[in-house]
Specification:
The chain is of the alpha+beta class. The protein has 10 helices and 4 strands; from the N terminus they run βαββαβαααααααα.
């Protein structure tokens, strides 16, 4: 399955929009739908609709269509009804004019400060009375299905780019882990030798003053301190866990699907291991490796926030 980003945009118009620019179509009084769907990252699926009044009844249908295809993201749906009646004027009937005049007189009797009807208002009311309400369900269903497919394709393309970037970052972290692994035995051996050198110097300065038993006890203590130091700075376990998390991240990216939350959890675990690696660092090289790892992990975190 592909990896989907939560960021995407798609827009479309119903089939009637193809003839919209021509004056002939405008005078014919045609109308069409426009639809935009845009999405950004979010922890959950958050749907917001911007619909004109005549399309409000279609919101539940649109909500069901989106929820069936999208799992996460803040999604904004904006729909418009475009009219081609720019040059067409509907002449109001005498009956309508009488009704409007009577209603205006009644309203102004109660509300004297109300502005009288304008010619544009009368023409708009005449046009709406003549055309009547239109059922947009069939056109909206087809348009929403087409636009939603385009949105999914946009999110898929962006998800592929994010997955490729994350795979590259995983490779860089693996290289850093390989650099860190041989440093610990070298540090342990060097520290053990320093403890023994200090013990030899101490024995030479007190030569003849101590008994064989005290000399042997001092040597044992030096070796015990060296062992304790080795245990304290050993990061083999952290590197093993880090490699395991990297393997799981790579497996999820290759698998695809709804993986954003699992990736986010694994990124937190990677950051924890990198922090422990830095806290156990007994050499400048390990500190640099830990810092470089945390920079890469933070960059990965920003990318993972956009994956569905």
């Amino acid at each position: 399955m592909p990896v989907y980003s939560m960021t995407g945009y798609a827009a479309g118009q119903s089939s009637g929009a193809a003839a919209a620019p021509s004056p002939e179509t405008k005078t014919a009084g045609g109308s069409w739908l426009g639809l935009e769907i845009r999405s950004v990252n979010s922890r959950f699926l958050d749907l917001a609709f911007r619909l004109p009044e005549e399309l409000r009844p279609l919101e539940p249908m649109l909500r069901d269509m989106l929820a069936a295809q999208l799992k996460r993201g803040k999604v904004e749906v904006r729909a418009t009804v475009e009219s081609g009646t720019t040059h067409a004027v509907t002449e109001p009937s005498a009956r309508l004019l009488q009704r409007l005049a009577s209603m205006q007189d009644n309203i102004q009797a109660w509300l004297p400060d109300v502005q009288p009807l304008r010619v544009a208002d009368v023409l708009r009311l005449a046009s709406s009375e003549q055309s009547g309400p239109r059922d947009w369900r069939a056109e909206m269903t087809a348009l929403a299905d087409k636009t939603l497919r385009e949105l999914l394709q946009a999110r898929k393309r962006e998800g592929a780019r994010l997955a490729a970037t994350l795979i590259d970052k995983l490779g860089e972290i693996r290289n850093l882990a390989r650099q860190a692994a041989p440093l610990v035995p070298q540090l342990v051996a060097a520290q053990r030798q320093r403890f023994l050198d200090r013990w030899n110097d101490a024995m030479q300065s007190t030569q003849g003053a101590g008994t064989p038993s005290t000399t042997e006890a001092a040597q044992d203590r030096a070796l015990s301190e060296a062992t304790a130091f080795a245990i304290r700075i050993d990061v083999a376990e952290e590197i093993t866990r880090l490699e395991s998390h990297l393997d799981e991240l790579e497996r999820l990216l290759n698998k695809g699907g709804e993986i954003g939350k699992r990736l986010d959890f694994l990124i937190q675990e990677l950051h924890r291991e990198a922090n422990t690696l830095g806290s156990k660092s007994a050499a400048l090289e390990l500190t640099h490796i830990s810092v470089d790892m945390k920079v890469l992990i933070e960059q990965m975190r920003e990318q993972v926030q956009n994956i569905e």
